[in-house]
User: Which sequence fits this backbone?
């Protein structure tokens, strides 16, 4: 990033090669539409280009890139749902919880998918966006809760609470295919 900010055009190709697929996957998990993910990826890298002089080399690059992507995601969600422009991640989470509560009254929790991967995908898709984005950043991008909080512009406590709720819901939905969560016999410590 420092080389790109200094004007090296090859550095951008390296940045895009490393972060392009990850940011695209981030948008795919939120919007499940390749065309939308492509557009938002372009918007993210355009914003990254415009902000390249603001990057501080002493800070890690991944949270900075995903902070830009998270802002692009939030802008798109606000636009699609016609939410106020000043709505932040916390407001989005509250709106989704209210929407989820209304939708779950008559929802049928049973689903028939033969493969585990499909069932996990369905369970992830059922999470509210505010929880799904945290699971994505934590599990798929390997970010800490503190880094996620900074990326999304919220508190670490709020991120941990949403992660707890998301993982709890995933465990509940996936229990039939995962079975009990006891460690395998060969991993149980013996006295």
Assistant:
């Amino acid at each position: 990033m420092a080389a790109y900010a200094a004007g090296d055009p090859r550095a951008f190709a390296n940045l895009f090669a490393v972060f392009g697929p990850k940011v695209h996957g981030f948008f795919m998990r939120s919007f499940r539409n390749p065309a939308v993910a492509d557009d938002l990826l372009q918007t993210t890298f355009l914003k990254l280009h415009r902000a390249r002089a603001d990057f501080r080399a002493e800070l890690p690059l991944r949270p900075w890139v995903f902070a830009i992507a998270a802002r692009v995601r939030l802008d798109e969600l606000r636009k699609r749902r016609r939410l106020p422009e000043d709505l932040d991640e916390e407001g989005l989470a509250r709106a989704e919880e209210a929407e989820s509560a209304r939708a779950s009254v008559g929802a049928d929790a049973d689903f028939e998918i033969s493969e585990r991967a499909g069932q996990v995908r369905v369970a992830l898709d059922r999470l509210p966006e505010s929880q799904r984005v945290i699971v994505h950043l934590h599990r798929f991008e390997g970010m800490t809760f503190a880094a996620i909080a900074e990326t999304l512009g919220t508190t670490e406590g709020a991120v941990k609470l949403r992660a707890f709720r998301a993982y709890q819901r995933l465990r509940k939905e996936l229990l039939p295919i995962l079975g009990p969560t006891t460690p395998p016999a060969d991993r149980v410590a013996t006295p």
